Amino acid sequence: MSHASINNLMDPYFKQWNVPVVRQVFSEDLASKILNTPLFEQVQHDTLIWKAEKNGRYSVRSAYRLCVSELVDLSHLHKPGYWNGIWKLKTPPKVKNLIWRMCRGCLPTRVRLLDKGVHCTTQCVSCDSNHEDLAHVFFECPFAVQVWSMARGSRCSDIIAFGH
């Protein structure tokens, strides 16, 4: 049995399991599972298929993704939302990325940095507010309010010039 291969477990002419060999090689519970696996007569040649890839070919990348999905709980990273809608916007990639980061709450505001263990003040550099979080940076800070009001009636170049 030291030189046995998978095809020794089957009778290729009758498309049946070689029951004595399967029972000899595997434990009773595993042999039972193998013997209950159907062999299809219409299959002429066996081929290796890697189900983690659409093309059926193995890749280290897909193996890594499979391992991560099986071994690591990433459910805390999944947030409900229509994320594909952001990526389908007809805007430059950096705008899509900014919107996605805002919606995911992963922009490095001072409050978020402090939550992540970075020792810094939570004070806003533009207005000296004591709480620089996402809402403050984009909507509540007087500087942001001024930029948004300029954006309603101005060109982008005017806003960029105002920011510098």
Q: Mind explaining what this structure looks like?
A:
The chain is mainly alpha-helical and 164 residues long. It folds into three domains: 1-41, no CATH class; 47-72, no CATH class; 80-163, no CATH class. The protein has nine helices and two strands; from the N terminus they run ββααααααααα. It has helices spanning 19-25, 28-35, 60-71, 83-87, 93-104, 110-115, 134-140, 142-153, 156-163; strands spanning 10-11, 16-17. It has a two-stranded antiparallel ribbon with strand order 1-2. A hairpin with a 4-residue loop joins β1 (10-11) and β2. α1 packs antiparallel against α2 and α7 packs across α8. It is elongated, with a radius of gyration of 30 Å. It starts with 9 loop residues before the first strand and ends with a helix. The model has no long low-confidence stretch (mean pLDDT 83).
Strand arrangement in the largest pleated sheet? 1-2
Tell me the structural class. mainly alpha
Order of helices and strands: EEHHHHHHHHH
Give the tally of β-strands: 2
How confident overall, as mean pLDDT? Answer: 83
Q: Which shape, going by the Cα principal axes?
A: elongated
Task: Work out the radius of gyration.
Answer: 30 Å
Biggest β-sheet description: 2 strands, antiparallel
Percent of residues in helices:
40-55%
Q: What are the segments in which pLDDT stays under 50 over at least 5 consecutive residues?
A: none
Number of helices: 9
